[in-house]
C-alpha cells in the first residue's frame, strides 16, 4: 500500500479545493493500492515564521514556535506521496499554505524527501492558477520530491456541466500520472538545474559557515561536501564536468569566511 497525503490549503472546508482534493484521492484510491488522507492545514496550529533563522543556524528543534509543525512534517515522512493543494487567493497560494511552506524552509536547505513523489492542485476563479502550480511544483522539487507536474482547476461559478466534466477529467489524468510515478523507482540522476542548485549551495555553506551552524554540520555529517549530489547517483561525463564547473564558479562567488 502507498500512503498519499493531500495538504489542503483552503480554510473553506467543503469548498472547491477540498472537493478537488477528494476527487483526486478517490481516483487514486480506485487503483487499489493507495490509501489517502486529506490534511486540512487550517485545522492545525502553524505559526507564522518569525524569520529568526534559528532553524537554519542552530537547528529546527530550537524554533521558538511550539506548534504542529513537526506533526505535519511527520505526515510527509510517513507518506510515499504528497499533494500540495491550494486555492488561488490574490494571485498566490492561500495564506495558510504559504505559512506551512515557510515553516518547511529549513528543509529546502537540507532536502530529505528523496524517493517520495509530489504534485500540486491549484483551484482558481479567473486567472493565476498555472503560476501557482509552477510555484508549488518548484517547492516540491526543492524539498527533494520527484515532481509530477500539477494541474490548475478553474471553478468560476456557477460551474457549468461542461466545466465540471473538464475538472473531473483533469483530476483523473493527474491521478493516473501521479500513480504511475508513485510506483516507479526514483530517477538516480539529477537534472542540470538540480545539480547546479546543490553544488552552488553546498559550496556556499562550506565556505561561509562553520561548525557552529546546523546547515554546515548537516552537510558534513551526510558527506555532502564531497559527494556528487545529495543522494547516491552516478553522473555521466557531461554532468561530472558541469558539476566541477559549478563547484569552481561557486568557489569564486562565495568568499571563505574570515576567522
Ligand atoms: C480572498 C480571495 C481571493 C481570491 N483571489 C483570486 C485571484 O486572485 N484569482 C482568481 O482567479 N481567483 C481568486 N479567488 C477565487 C478562488 O480562487 C476560487 O473561488 C476558488 O474556487 C476558491 O477555492 P476554495 O473554495 O477552496 O477556497 C479568490 C477568492 C478569495 C476568497
Question: What features would you describe in this structure?
Answer:
This protein has ten helices and six strands; from the N terminus they run βαβααβααβαββαααα. Strands 1, 2, 3, 4, 5 and 6 form a six-stranded parallel sheet that branches. The mean pLDDT is 95. It has 259 residues and is α/β, with parallel strands linked by helices.
Number of helices: 10
What small molecules accompany the polymer chains?
flavin mononucleotide
Tell me how many strands there are.
6
The geometry reads as globular
The topology string of helices and strands comes to EHEHHEHHEHEEHHHH
Which whole number gives the mean pLDDT?
95
In CATH, the homologous superfamily of the largest domain goes by the name Flavodoxin domain
- Total domain count: 2
What structural class should be given to the helix and strand makeup? alpha/beta
Distance between the termini: 53 Å
Please give the CATH class of the largest domain: Alpha Beta
- Rg, please? 20 Å
CATH topology of the largest domain: Rossmann fold
Helical amount: 40-55%
Strand fraction: 5-15%
List keywords for this structure.
single chain, 259 residues, Rossmann fold, 2 domains, 6 strands, globular
Amino acid at each position: 500500500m502507498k500512503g498519499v497525503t493531500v495538504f489542503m490549503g483552503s480554510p473553506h472546508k467543503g469548498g472547491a479545493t477540498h472537493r478537488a482534493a477528494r476527487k483526486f484521492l478517490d481516483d487514486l484510491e480506485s487503483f487499489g493500492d493507495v490509501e489517502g488522507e486529506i490534511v486540512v492545514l487550517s485545522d492545525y496550529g502553524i505559526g507564522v515564521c518569525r524569520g529568526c533563522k534559528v532553524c537554519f543556524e542552530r537547528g529546527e528543534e530550537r524554533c521558538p514556535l511550539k506548534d504542529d509543525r513537526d506533526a505535519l512534517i511527520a505526515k510527509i515522512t510517513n507518506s510515499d506521496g504528497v499533494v500540495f493543494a491550494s486555492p488561488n487567493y490574490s494571485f498566490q497560494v492561500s495564506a495558510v499554505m504559504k505559512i506551512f511552506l515557510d515553516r518547511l524552509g529549513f528543509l529546502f536547505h537540507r532536502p530529505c524527501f528523496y524517493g517520495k513523489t509530489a504534485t500540486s492542485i491549484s483551484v482558481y476563479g479567473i486567472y493565476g492558477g498555472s503560476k501557482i502550480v509552477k510555484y508549488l511544483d518548484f517547492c516540491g522539487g526543492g524539498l527533494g520530491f520527484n515532481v509530477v507536474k500539477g494541474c490548475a482547476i478553474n471553478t468560476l461559478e456557477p460551474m457549468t456541466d461542461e466545466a465540471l466534466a473538464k475538472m473531473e477529467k483533469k483530476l483523473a489524468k493527474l491521478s493516473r500520472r501521479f500513480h504511475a510515478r508513485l510506483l516507479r523507482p526514483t530517477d538516480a540522476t539529477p537534472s542540470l538545474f538540480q545539480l547546479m542548485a546543490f553544488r552552488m549551495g553546498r559550496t556556499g555553506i562550506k565556505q561561509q559557515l562553520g561548525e557552529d551552524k546546523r546547515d554546515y554540520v548537516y552537510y558534513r555529517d551526510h558527506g555532502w561536501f564531497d559527494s556528487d549530489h545529495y543522494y547516491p547517483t552516478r553522473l555521466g561525463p557531461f554532468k561530472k564536468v558541469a558539476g566541477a564547473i559549478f563547484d569552481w564558479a561557486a568557489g569564486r562567488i562565495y568568499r571563505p569566511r574570515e576567522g
